UniProtKB/TrEMBL annotation:
Annotated Polar residues bias: 257-270, 319-331
Protein name, as recorded: Adrenergic receptor protein
Highest rank taxon of the organism: Eukaryota
UniProt subcellular location: Cell membrane
GO molecular function: adrenergic receptor activity
Record bears the keyword Transport: no
InterPro entries given in the database record: ADR_fam, GPCR_Rhodpsn, GPCR_Rhodpsn_7TM
Similarity section: Belongs to the G-protein coupled receptor 1 family.
The species this protein was found in: Magallana angulata
Region span, Disordered: 242-307, 312-331
Amino acid sequence: MMNLTGSNYSNTTISSGSERVLPPGYSTVHLTLTVTIVTIIILIIVGGNLLVVVAIYTDKNLKSKQNWLIASLAVADCLLGLIIMPFSLTNEVMGYWYFGSVWCDLWKAIDVLLCTASILSICLISLDRYWCITKALTYPRQRTATRAALMIAAVWILSLIVCVPPLIGWKNPLPVNDYPLCLLSSELGYIISSCMGSFYIPGVIMVIVYYKIYKAATERARKQRGNNNKKAKKKDKTDKELYGLLKNTDTKEKQETVTNMPTKVNSMTLTDDESTWPMYQKQGVNREDSGQEPETGNGTIDEQDIDLDEANEKESTKSDTTGTTNLTPNQEEIKHAEVYDAVKDLERHKRKLAKARERRATIVLGIVMAAFIVCWAPFFTLYIITALCNCIPDIVFDVCFWAGYCNSALNPIIYTVFNRDFRHAFKRILCIGQAHR
């Protein structure tokens, strides 16, 4: 996405004796301020997105297929700050293109490629999130490494399709000027098609998908409230039945009951909605090949979570080892009650953790999408208008143009603020760097 301010200087002549060394309209203070601010933005874009890529590559808690999509987004944003923005800044402050026509064409194409890849990556992340919620039982199995790689490849192929046409002739010839210029294509057909492919179609998809995510989350919360009311009425009855079952069995049968209790508790006290994540765990749905923690539709479960079957097996082994002849009936009943309460607490803790992560992931996605729309919508709107009329003030277009680039700086900041795993990984990486220094 190339700034149009170069057109301001198309009729200006350069003479060897000219005293003007700054672009028209730029004071020394203005120029210094512009260079300083844009340089800081570039450093944030490159450094922040590079941290995201390194964190995903090195941190086992972040090596999930879902985060591959975030890595693709970070790569596009990082390259944008590294390859495109320094030349945009140079062109802005000099007022003309210094680097030749060949690099001008390639630079504009790479700019469109990276901006489109960044936008389509956000769209893909929203679709992935939607499938996680609406296909909670099947999608984690379908999200293989091959599928994730194909989705990322599709993003970059579509981005190439958008950026290539000007390279093969779909553009207007540049006017003859005393200053060499590197301008965006003013061909109306390409402007409309590129804006549709780079922004409007992905933007509409993201808005629709996020609305469906919100509706699905609202419906799940409504069902959950109803299930909680039903559970509250049945809780006392269920507890009494289970306790009576424990009390009326002999010592050997009690040991067997304790061993099998988690399965019975799950089936008798948990609703389908609440017990979703334990079902993933037992089916082996969410174990990543890389050692990633169990994954639900919203992310990963903490390492502290305990496999209930394993815990029960240990409890049974412990009972067999120590024997029961030394336990009085009252002691045995107390032991069974403690195990039962512990199982319920573990189930409750895991459900709360999974739901909290799901809410947090949905909120982060919403913030990323809002930042994307706020940053890019003004530019793509004005880009179409400038093809129809020369009625947009240069300063307005400049602000909207650079606001689009700023979106690439916001994404790593959003993940740092709202994602604990990324935050911990960033701290670890930065501390390692300080240790070497």
